[in-house]
Amino acid sequence: MEINYLEEGKNKIKVEIKGEGHTLCNPLVKELWQDKSVDVAGYHIDHSLVSNPILIVGSSGDAKTALKKAIDRLGKKIKEMDDKFKKAKLS
Q1: Confidence at residue 90, expressed as pLDDT on a 0 to 100 scale
Q2: Three-state DSSP class for 57?
Q3: Would you call 86 helix, strand, or coil by DSSP?
């Protein structure tokens, strides 16, 4: 995965996430909305076969920090789910 910053300000960032799609972006946006400082969180994909998603984050605080925290929280949730599957011997 490669991240390309298209717009980078303190309160707003716009990034292209190369090689990813709805599977990553949808849960990431949902996690971003859990942060009370996030005013805008969304993404769009022009064409799912030939386009990369564009993620937009707007925040009353630091947008980049909000994105990093959301990624960390999402990573922890995925790890917890993986651990539970392993315990249930479903992996």
Answers
A1: 61
A2: strand
A3: helix
pLDDT tens digits, one per residue of 23-78: 999 999 999 999 999 999 999 999 878 899 999 999 999 999 999 999 999 999 99
Left if phi > 0, otherwise alpha if psi is -120 to 50, otherwise beta: which for 86? alpha
Contact between 70 and 28 under an 8 Å Cβ cutoff? The reply is: yes
What is the Cα 14 distance to its own chain's centre? 12
Amino acid, res. 21 = G
Task: Write the CATH number of the domain with boundaries 2-87.
Answer: 3.30.1360.10
Predicted TM-score of the model (pTM): 0.87
DSSP-H helix ranges across the chain = 22-32, 63-87
Please, are residues 23 and 74 in contact by the beta-carbon 8 Å criterion?
no
